[in-house]
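Supplementary Methods. Inverse-folding protocol.

Structures were first reduced to a discrete structure-token string of length 149. This string, shown here, constituted the complete conditioning input.
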């Protein structure tokens, strides 16, 4: 390890580093989805990508930056590493799951609205997503509030 490696380790914890890396991975995925979207625009008679390819691209871009916000909250949280990692991982898992679902619909070209004829468990999944994403963020915000209080 170099001195710079030690400086980074002193600056942010492993929890922050993991979340920043997740943000970077999602951003790379978003950029690759942009290539898929571009290909759809270039090759389709309508000059548009499939709606779910477009949604996947935009969602991945937004989720990559949302994950970076999670990293900042993790870095500032007073909670233990395990709490921070779990609190950040829950929304990140749902972010990744949503992007993956959009990719599947884009590849299959099977729908333009996944809620028109939802598969069994869709609404339960959405409820879990709502609770998990909001809950994970609230835990991290609470960790920051504990630190500043």
């Amino acid at each position: 390890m170099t001195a710079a490696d030690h400086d980074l380790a002193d600056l942010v914890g492993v929890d922050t580093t993991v979340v920043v890396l997740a943000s970077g991975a999602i951003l790379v995925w978003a950029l690759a989805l942009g290539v898929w979207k571009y290909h759809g625009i270039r090759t389709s008679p309508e000059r548009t990508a499939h709606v779910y390819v477009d949604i996947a691209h935009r969602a991945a871009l937004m989720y990559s930056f949302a994950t970076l916000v999670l990293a900042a909250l993790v870095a500032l949280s007073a909670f233990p590493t395990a709490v921070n990692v779990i609190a950040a991982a829950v929304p990140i898992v749902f972010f990744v799951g949503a992007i993956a679902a959009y990719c599947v619909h884009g590849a299959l070209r099977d729908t333009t609205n996944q809620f028109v004829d939802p598969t069994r468990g869709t609404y339960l999944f959405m409820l879990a997503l709502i609770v998990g994403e909001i809950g994970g963020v609230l835990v991290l915000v609470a960790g920051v509030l504990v630190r500043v209080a």
